[in-house]
Amino acid sequence: MSRYCSCGAALATDNNTGRCGACAISARTLAERPPRVPAAFWQTDRIRDALAARDMGALIAAYRTHPYHGRPVRQDLAAGWFGLSQSQLSRIERGLTCVDDIGRLTAWAAILALPDDLLWIRPTAERGTPSLSPVRHDRHEQGSANRAGVGETWDMNRRNLLRLATAAATTLAASSTAVDRHRLTAGDLHPLPLDHGALNDYAMTADTLWRQFTAADTKHQLAAVVHDQLTVLLGQLRTSPGDSVRRALCQTIASLFQLAGEISLDTGAYLDAAHCYTLAATAARDAKAADLWACALTRHAYVCMFDGHDAEAIPMLQHASAIAGDGDSALSTRHWVNAVLAQAYAATGQLDATLGALDAAEAVHDQPGPVHNGGWLRFDGSRLEEDRASAYIRLGEADRAEPILTAMLAGRLPARRYGCALTSLATVGALRGDPTQLVHYGSAAVETARTTRSAVIRSRLHDLQQHLSQFHTDRHVRRLDDDITALTGGTL
What we know:
The protein has 492 residues and is an all-alpha fold. It has 22 helices and no strands.
């Protein structure tokens, strides 16, 4: 007897999933993000009514059930887009839970890709107008104060994350002793308040947020959702659960604090990022998750390197390498640590150590099967050529770096990596004494930094400025320097 998918397509006799291939792919995509929709999507009566009422719950419900999808998007799938459970989204859609936090509303509107002209949330600082800060010489101060174009919404989300991080430090310390006191007095643990299904849901939500972060050009829009998830998890941790549940909670908390750190780093809030990475390392250590712990330390080392203190990053990375040695040998953690360590060695002029660390990182290609989880660990060796080129530039080996970077630009790169590659090629031009190449790639990198508002690209451009003084008579280079200063607050 013939069998059919719900869309009407005939199923193969060996297909036991009940879905055709197209529907299976669609379901996987919907589990990660909302579908891309045309401009006319937002013109239906139900959508317009929700917008007129300024009701995000009604808007999400109208979005899910829009005729454009063919059939309604399941509520549990849509909940995952916002880091919610199905029951939480159900209450929001029915108006039983009111959402009025500007940061959260802005983040959810961005996730749905709601057009700007329909967005009723209007922070004081209008989007798209970069706010320039006074010149600062301390990179930590500069990063925190000069988040060009991010605006008031991020400032509010940043304050919320900082308050949460401060409370989290106490929670992580207190919950550790609470379990021990309970064991001493009760002799056995009470029934767990969380089941494995709930713990898995939390972990899956964290994974989804990491995927959304990777795909987003403007990373700060996820800050409110990450804050909400961490608030829930820390609340669960305060109930003093048993050891196994506590470790599972700490593992997800460590993952999300690393994500919060990545968001902060991308906006240039380096001190905030360092604070988040420290908490991530503490939670990962408590979870006895060696790979997660090593990744948190590696990300923390990046903050030192962005600030120009590469020598300080080396002992932290060496410690991360030792911890990764106790982790899962099937994962690429230790290889990633070596790739970052190579950059720190190169910045301090240690050629042999740099090449040795790069060779150790290259061993990732000998690993069988999947080597990363796509979330807090994303290193698969695909960026090693980029890392090698960056190391060569730091060592002054421009001729060895250029062909690698040129080949990279010929492929398809995410916006942030593309901007970093452009900046590296501009640096190659500077090292060669070629102002034409310097200005060509440097100007393109500046434009990418403006579009993405990425502090990572701005940090690379700030580093490029140290090479510009030799071209002070070239008006095109002076214009490039002015453009970089407008983005970073740096000086020639």
